[in-house]
Design goal:
By secondary structure, this protein is an all-alpha fold. The protein is about 90% helix and about 0% strand. The chain contains 1 helix and no strands. It has one helix at about 1-20.
Length: about 25
């Protein structure tokens, strides 16, 4: 379960970083 949470947080962080770069 911890691994799933870590992967989810990593995906969210990657998405946010990509969004900032797009802006």
């Amino acid at each position: 379960i911890w691994r799933v949470i870590t992967n989810f947080l990593f995906l969210v962080k990657f998405t946010i970083n990509y969004g900032i770069i797009s802006m």
